[in-house]
Amino acid sequence: MIAVRSPDEIQHIRASCEIVVAVQRALEQAVKVNVSTSELDALAERTILECGARPAFKGYRDFPSSICTSINSAAVHGFPSPDVNLVEGDIITIDVGVELDGFYGDGAFTVGVGDISADCRRLLETTRGALADGIAQARAGGRLGDISHAVQSRVESAGMSVIREFGGHGIGRTLHEDPHIPNHGNPGKGPRLKPGFVFAIEPIVSLGGPELVVGDDGWTTTTRDGTPVAHAEHTVALTAEGPEI
Ligand code: MG
User: Fold this and answer.
1) What pLDDT score was predicted for residue 114?
2) What angle do CA 154, 155, 157 make, to 5 degrees?
3) Which parts of the chain have pLDDT scores under 50?
4) 74, 151, 210, 217: which has the fewest Cβ within 10 Å?
5) What CA–CA distance (Å, rounded) separates 201 from 134?
6) How far does residue 106's CA lie from ligand 1's centre (Å)?
7) What single-letter DSSP state applies at residue 143?
C-alpha cells in the first residue's frame, strides 16, 4: 500500500527535509583530511537537535549513530568511528535521516576528500546524474519501473553497476515505507504513480561490479571487488505539477 500524502503532510515532510539539507551543508564544510567520522556524526546530531528534530537513524534497528558514513568501497550503512579519519583521495557517502513532528526526511550525498581520482569524479557525476534521471521520471501517470529504468540506464551506459540489494523507498510517517524502489527495472512496469506519493530515490553505484560482502560489524557492506561506491538520495514528492525535491 503506497500512501497518498495530503498537502499538509507534504509540508511536514518538507520541513524535515529542510533540516536534512541544513545538516548536509554543515557536513560538506566539515569533510576534510584527518577529520574522523565520529566528529561528523557529532556535528550532524548537534545540528539536528538544534533544529528541534531527532536523528532518525539513531536506534533504528539498533543502528548506533545519527548518520551513515560509508568510505570508498563501503556501499551503505557504514557507521562513524573515532578511529576512522578521512584521507586525501577518499570518497565518503553521508546519509542523513531526520524526524520532525512525526514526519521523516532522508538524503544522502557522496563527496571527495581533497583531490580524488578521475575515476571517482566520473563515479560521482554518474551517480548524481542517475538520481536526476530517476527524479525526472517521478511523475504522476508514469510507473515505478520508469524511475528504476532511468537510474539503471544512466549507470550502465557509463559502464558502472547499480547495487541491487538496496534501493529507494516510500517515506513519510516512517523512515521506510512502501514501495521499495529498485535501481534497476523495466519502464512501463510496476505501480502507477500518483500525486501525493513521497519517495526517497537513491541510486547506489559501483565503479566496478555489483557484488557486496557484509563486514564483521554486521552493518557495513563493501564491494567484493574493492571498487568505490557512490550514493545520492533525495526525498521527492510527486505533485500534479511534477516531482518536487
Ligand atoms: Mg533512504
Assistant:
1) 96
2) 70
3) none
4) 217
5) 7
6) 5
7) B
